[in-house]
Amino acid sequence: MERKYQILEVLKKSKTPIKGKDLSEMFNVSRQMIVSDIAELREEGYKIVSTRDGYVFDHGNTVRRVIAVKHNVSDIYDELKKIVENGGKVLDVIVEHPIYGELTGRIDVGTLDEVEKFVSLLASTGTKPLSEISNGIHLHTIEAPDEETMNKILKAIRRYRITKDNEEATE
């Protein structure tokens, strides 16, 4: 079996992200060869996502929504915590910049530990979150295992959500 398909099988079976470095050691090739194999697999249509913690195979059985929210910097922890406590994962943050257009930053938090790390990193680096560019208004791509869980998440963060046409925030 060709190495790239062996890599694909490893990713499909893994429940956690696998770093490119670990794959390169596993298959005794350079990190660049792993990057090349992943690129070829993607070109063939396999959904492999790069996260801060490594590569993940997207099995496609999850629900994803892009939601609009608005809150202060002091509410970041509470918002992310509510999402993961209710079974979701926050993939990114998207803001509209007046000059550059849409800017996206990866968040990739799906556990309370990851939320803690993310918020600690914001605080320790003194970095301002992207949402400050747009006065607290931003989008998140949220992933959940099913519609029921997604609805639970949306209800849990209803105080932060921006709804269109007076729709009910609980969906």
TrEMBL record:
Residues 67-159 form the 3H domain. Coiled coil: none annotated. Keywords: Metal-binding, Nickel. Residues 3-55 form the Helix-turn-helix type domain. It holds the Pfam family HTH_11. One of its GO terms (molecular function) is metal ion binding. Signal peptide: none annotated. InterPro entries: 3H_dom_sf, 3H_domain, HTH_11, NadR, WH-like_DNA-bd_sf, WH_DNA-bd_sf. The keyword Transferase does not apply. Ni(2+) binds at H71, E79, H138, H140. PANTHER family: TRANSCRIPTION REPRESSOR NIAR-RELATED (PTHR40068:SF1). This is Transcriptional regulator.
